[in-house]
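Practice set, problem 2.
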Amino acid sequence: MEKQLIECVPNISEGRDTAKISAITEVVEKIEGIKLLDVDPGKATNRTVITFVGEPKKVVEAAFQLIKKASELIDMSKHSGEHPRFGATDVCPLIPISGITMEETAKYAHLLAERVGNELQIPVYCYENAATEPKRKNLANCRAGEYEGLKEKLNNPDWKPDYGPNKFNEKVQQSGATAISARDFLIAYNVNLNTTSTRRANAIAFDIREAGRVKTDEKGKNILDENGEPIRIAGKLKAIKGIGWYIEEYGIAQISYNLTNISITPMHIAFDESDKAANLRGLRVTGSELIGLIPLKAMLDAADYYLIKQQRSLGCSESEKIKIAIKSLGLDELKPFNPREKIIEYVLEDADKQKKLVDLTVTAFTDETAAESMAPGGGSISALVGALGVALGTMVANLSGHKKEWDHRWEEFSTWAVKGQQYKSKLLQLIDEDTNAFNKIIDGFRMPKETDEQKKVRAEAIENATKYATIVPFTVMETAFQSMEVMQAMLKDGMQSSLSDSAVGILCAKTSITGAFFNVKINAKDIKDRVFAEDILKRGEEIYLKAVAIEKNTIELINSKM
């Protein structure tokens, strides 16, 4: 069963006092099983965005302890900052990451809210997917009036908190209120302008954000509908909120966006449309700033967007795409942008601190292979050789797409390069998976075998592990064979000056297939389920013979051309 993971992104109303921020984040790190991913303070906003992840119950505990500590250290009666706020822990959203639904996440949000209200005596408003009524879904409604208007809000029966006191007592005077939610992944994203004018930044925000602006007459007076409500002019983009502000720390005005659904409005579209709107107002977008973390896909989508606009191949490496996204969006204009600290998948990888073969240098990988251990062995090396082979084919596709006289064919070669990158990524993943499969067999042999029941469980574990250790190299065979299509296409239609590179790619793929087939054979002989074993051996033989034929044809082609 997939492990349940929730991300929590509390925003505390303190962005200047590092000692207080550290004291608050330390309580999160003390909870076993919680990974603190990011702490992003802002001096001008006087606000810090904290990101951590873990299993639901542990996240709820960590969030409670954070809210408790923040309420002890932050005095809202003395707080000031550019960002709207009404509490020491202003907002505390829970976000489903894996193995859990939004509905389940909302239940955990209410468990947290109830505990904060009852035990800490802090008023709590539940918003987004945890909202108890439609008007509370929108955070802006819950936070309207901010801290300064909280006393009046608590006295209003329509805005009685979902949990906690509805009186502005001494405790509330210090800690304010907290908004807790279950929501989709939200990106806090600021666009930088070449102006210091908050009014002009707001004008662009109103052009872009979904809520748009209130319609006014020539004298600037709001135009009302038949019910006396202001008529609004919708903004250009959906699923986006925004305001303009001046950041003294940087000496510029920014448009501060919340991208509430990046599948509807991704970061790069918000950036480009802001730039267009700025140009119409005589301004220019100079870069942007990401607050907190971002999914890897959002960065790769941004890179693809700009590569397509430049008519460049999409088949470049992941690391190259990240660089393109950073530079295209100007994410490093105000301060360095470190992908290992800002992309959620990378942060989780680094937090796990699990040693992977693919992360080693070439020298270290070779030394690890030569060491006195059985893994990595022939299976991992076969996967590596296959990855190198299709990398060559991908290189030829990218080079072919750069030929001046073939500019009109860039999409054709980009398609092949993208396929090559997909095959390469899968083969790289199989390098470590082959070693993991071998270790599963070893774990099986280490299981106890004193009783008949233990012997039965042990034998079943070894059988299943051996089957898996056969499936992995077979998958290497399949993938390496499929990857040959890239090199074959480049031999036929790619740069003829790179024929040898495509041919070497074919030879590497054939070696990968042969080596992986050896591993299939040696593991299949120990499988008790002979129907399974014979089937995988038969399919492996078919792939091997086809690869031999392709290798033969390739060698003949190269000999005829050179």
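Problem 2, part (b): a different protein.
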Amino acid sequence: MTDEFDQLGNLAPAPRASDAARARALAAAMRAFDETEENTARSKGSSWWRRQSSVLNRIWSARMFTQHRYLAGSALATMLIIPTAALLTFELTRGNLPNSGQVTLPQVLDAPKPAAERVPVPTVAKPPEPRQPEAGRGNDAAQTAQPSRQSDFVESDIARLLNKQEASGGAAKRSAAPAPMAPSPALAERAVPLAAAPRYAPTEREILPPLEESRDRFANADTSPVKSVATDPVSTFSVDVDTASYAFVRRSLLEGHLPDPDSVRVEEMINYFPYDWPRPQTADEPFRTTVTVTPTPWNSGTRLMHVAIKGFETASAAQPAANLVFLIDVSGSMNAPDKLPLLKSAFRLLVGKLKPEDKVSIITYAGNAGTVLEPTSARERDKIFAAIDNLRPGGSTAGAEGIDAAYRLARQAFIQGGVNRVMLATDGDFNLGVSSDEELKRIIEQRRKDGIFLSVLGFGKGNLNDSLMQTLAQNGNGTAAYIDTLAEAQKALVDEAGSTLFPIAKDVKIQVEFNPQQISEYRLVGYETRALKREDFNNDRVDAGDIGSGHAVTAIYEVTPKGSASALNDPLRYGPAAASAPIPVSNEMAFVKIRYKQPDGDASKLITTVVTETNAVRDFSAAPQDVRFATAVAAFGQKLRGTDALDAYPYRLILDMARNARGEDAFGYRGGFLDLVRLAETLDRR
């Protein structure tokens, strides 16, 4: 390498470059510099929040992301600019570029310049603002009228600048200097005095793409409070077999952030998992009740009372024929990979599960409702698949009109003694026609009298109207699920099709009366949006939840025994004495009552269960495996929701509780739950 430099040094003096050659070389260097700056500021690939990256990348801190990106841009600029400038200088000194032997580049650089006329460069240049097209001109015209930043610094500007610099400070070196020329407006725009150019420090908002504002809507329900048995001994609520909340919480955590507390419905998280509760032996008993009392893991002064219901599971061959109407939202808001494309794949899975005697119809709505497929036998699968595959998004959302059309078609193909169900698939964005929750609720309540059930499947994020979906499902004798992956579609529509499609009981209500001689306080975990008035329990006109074939429903109460130091309410000074109870039942803790109707009935039936110490276990580790796992899920949901009772209870204990009760996990649901607890512990900085 030394010999090569010696040979270069022995070469004959290189001829001097011309002004034009220098101008061209400098213009090329400036273009390279500008391109480097623009490429550094421009984001690469997809927006960062849409990128399919790992969870660890998504939860990487914004500060580290900012620092690394900023340093990476500087390094890239350095690697590109220095070699380019070195090459141009070397070629100029060797004379390989055209020249007329007038002025050398060192002369120009060494020429003294008055301070007022210097063209300084700020220490850090702010990224250029995008140019806007001129009013009244098309894109092509605007591009012609507004040259790019690379072309602003043209060759003539460089020549004028060189001439001006030499005229002001280099007269002694040149006897015949051209008249000084003012730089072009484009150059003058760049020549900002250093004192007037403040150092630019990019903020995180400018460097990181701004997060899209989420328009997801959830019902805002306060967490169930602790109630005194002395003043409010009865708790009444509707059962809930929905699972939408768990799937939405899972998606939020996998995307690297904690879920909206209002999106966390603890009862739906508990009931997401299959449990092996004791089941009824015959269809004459639609479901069986099991009650277990255990110590509370997060509070030594209270106990947990699990009320579990297991529905009778009908054999596939004995299931009645189904008349299904797919009511599909194809509005413009459904144009996303996790919306209409996923929806189409989900319904293809469901159609593959149907029997030949089942019927399928398809109604779409976007601007107005339309019939895509008249009632068609499930044996004509190719015809149904073709109708699904041809769905395309576009237009506004006339949801109420679509619901009316779907119920008309369901009545048209009604199967007497069978299952008649509308399956609404949407992101919940109803923006034309009847759109208020109360008005849509009224429409659904009228339609359920025809014996037609409703299922609601939610898709997508950022525009999800979960509140409306819950309203429709709860008032349409139906269920609600959230489909975030094809695996979730497989679970909800195929693996659990019996419980999803075939009801065994409707308007199922639970009422628990606590004995003040044994229990001083209680708190229902979850079911905030399912609470009923005490008098609603015996009123058959009040709608409630439905249970499908083989469905399991679990409710958990945290109860405070009489005399416990954990009681939050003082005893009443003037309240009735416990001894005045008309019937001495001191050995009972609670009395559980369940009302239900047959799927085609109007009069309710009653099932009762007495809770005593025979239902209790002294050691939590001795409780049944499913009881312990359900408790872990309940603890996790309450912690995500921000329930005060779980503030001091760490995620690691929830994880240990769930891991020790995982048991058989054929589909991996419980293993996935363990992963979510680990993620939440990493993300939670409260």
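Answer key, part (b): The chain has three domains: 11-207, 228-314+504-564+586-683, 321-497. The first strand starts at residue 227 and ends at 228.
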